[in-house]
Design goal:
about 140 residues, mainly alpha, globular
Length: about 140
């Protein structure tokens, strides 16, 4: 009898943990978009981009400050317990990878003329902003 009750408590705890880990619709949409763009999930910057885009899409950053005490990098760094400079660098690395190895047609379709001339890719801020705008566009379509 005790083993059955202990097993039930464990299964309920496992079920609750799985529900907490389940992605929201917004997180699923961000995942699909980043996958389409070509941002690899194994890079640290992927999780940082996902967090930043989700927050921007949900309206957390109205003035869209990247740096500063209330900026995106600081918020993401606080959540992941790291430094803002590492967040910035890892996001830039993931964007570089996507623009070097991603499908140019998809990238141009999403980012269009927002790509910085001479660099061939958008800035981190523009990337996050454009991803959030693309999610809004897809939702309204």
């Amino acid at each position: 009898m005790l083993k059955i009750e202990a097993g039930n408590k464990r299964s309920q705890a496992n079920k609750q943990q799985q529900e907490e880990k389940a992605m929201t619709k917004t997180e699923c949409a961000v995942y699909d978009l980043l996958k389409e763009i070509g941002v690899p999930t194994h890079k640290k910057g992927y999780a940082y981009i996902q967090e930043a885009v989700t927050n921007k899409y949900d309206g957390k950053y109205e003035d869209f400050s990247i740096t500063g005490p209330k900026g995106i990098y600081c918020d993401v760094a606080k959540k992941f317990r790291t430094e803002a400079s590492r967040v910035e660098r890892d996001i830039r690395s993931a964007i570089d990878y996507a623009f070097n190895y991603g499908d140019p047609k998809v990238l141009y379709g999403i980012f269009g003329n927002s790509i910085a001339p001479g660099k061939g890719k958008p800035t981190n801020a523009m990337f996050i902003f454009q991803c959030a705008k693309e999610l809004e566009r897809r939702k309204s379509a």
